[in-house]
Specification:
This protein is an alpha+beta fold.
Amino acid sequence: MNLRLFLILLIILTTCAHAQETISEQPTNNGQIIEEQILLNGYVDLSGNVLLTGYATPDSLDYMPFLNGTNYSFDNNSDQLYAVTDSLTSKKADTWNLNFTLDGYYSDYSITFYLPPGSQITKFDIQPQLNYEVQVKQDSLILSVHGYRIISPWIKVDYQLPPADVQAQQKSQITSAASILLILLLVAGATFAFYRYKIRKRTGDIKEKEPKDQELEIMPETTTIPETETIPVTKNIRITGEMQKVIETLSEKEKSIILLLLRNGGSATQADIRYQVEIPKSSLTGIINALNRKNIIKKREYGRTNIIELSEWFLSENKV
């Protein structure tokens, strides 16, 4: 009995020592472990190339070995990363392997991979401390992985592409969709330019008709934002079952932002969100952009900050 107890204690002490050694190997600053943050989207094409876009702390680039020998850009002001690499994938027979492994310690880790339409995952393995979600949207396979306070996270995915004839059809559909999108953008641009021209002309006509001796109302000096730029408020927001389903798919920090907007009547400034939710500025920009891409929120400029509003799609009770 004593021998069994001794062996159990020995295993526990060995495990604790290994964990302490792993943490001690992480880079430190005056004894404090350096916490990195990443929020990335990875778009995988049929040839295995991966387009990575999103946000990362500057020091985290040193822990991304796949960037070596890769042309990439990083904006030190916004912490935005843009890279195209073929180092994350490999192929054996008909099976592709996606291996996304990082070094370092991450207080906030979020990566979403978009596999080619029609792909099928044959094997999937991630670090046990990570959470994941797999979705199918418009025939694309979406793999979302996130975690907090993670050491050296890794993701390994085996997947197979659809048959060659299906791939050719998909390429044709993508080309057609891109052409239609380009035409729509041109039409929208022309319509917008015409609309602005009409507004300017109408404003000019009104100014010409104003009497010269008319007394103009002067706004107080404390008013720096015109009335048309006031923050819109959506009252009496009722959380529907569909809204709740969308909220449940979000990360904890994304949820906190959406719940804050719901409590505030549907909108808030980005500065207020940062102070109330207590998310670092470098992370908040990436999270808001991710929510914007998911069509859950929309943002527009408001002085030196942005107005963040819940989208009409999210507020609608008839979402698909």
